[in-house]
Amino acid sequence: MSVRSFEQVRSSLEDILFEIQSSCTDCEWFISSEKIIEILGIRREDYYKILYTLRGEVHQASRAAQGFKETQADLLVKLLSKILKLEGLEHEFARAGVYFDDSYLEELRDHLRELVRSKLEKHELDRELLLLLISSTKRFEDAFDSYFDDKFNLERLVSNGISEFLERKSILPDYGADVFLKNYFFRILNTKVFLLREITSEYRDRAYYEIFGRFRHEENKKKKKSHSRRHSRVESEDSEVRKHREFLGLSEDYSKSELRKKYKELIKKYHPDINKEGLEMTQKIIASYNFLVMRTG
């Protein structure tokens, strides 16, 4: 292969990126090996020799013999790095908006995590809505998930976050970069890579305290303790259990079905949608019900 100047190398890289951008349709693209060979001015034999000798990439190289699509961009970057003897091509591809390596995706995840936390930090809890959702679900986690969906348009939040990220990194959005990153986000949402409940856990704890007047971890301890005696009721109930039981109007030997029935009766009577003066009473009913559910297992 002939020795090429730095200007020629840069020009070839820019031509390849332009070719890829020109073929982009909703973040999908393809560039043929023939086109790459033509742009680089390299002998076909040398091109395929380098392609098939990429360490640990033999299988991928066989599949890319005819050309590369967006899912094979990492291999194309490795190939061009070898041929052009250039480092940092991942950043060139990212700035062109056609490929993002793990470092960019990790940075995007961090940016979106902080964006969600920032929005929650500034958010004022709608106690009435959360109470309504709690009264219609068995688990606080499920109620809060519904609350989050109602109060935060996650799709719009993510779209705005991605736009900020692209602008900050000087990445062109014109060739489907925003579409690619949005699709990527919703693929990883609620996986261990981006677990939304974990990200919102601090605010969940604060919301729980505002509603019930105690911390969630205290209830979890009580729940674990009660689980060990699931099959035997405590011979003599403590004062706190008695307080909540008597508040709901239950006998000492109440059953789970009686607890649920009494809860539904009281909620129907005092819920703010029915009784405008019933918000405080509804909060107490929910708190007593949840306490007894956790205590009885």
UniProtKB/TrEMBL annotation:
Pfam families: DnaJ. PROSITE patterns: DNAJ_2. Residues 243-297 form the J domain. InterPro entries: DnaJ_domain (IPR001623), J_dom_sf (IPR036869). SMART domains: DnaJ. This is Molecular chaperone DnaJ. It comes from Leptospira perolatii. The lineage of its organism: Bacteria, Pseudomonadati, Spirochaetota, Spirochaetia, Leptospirales.
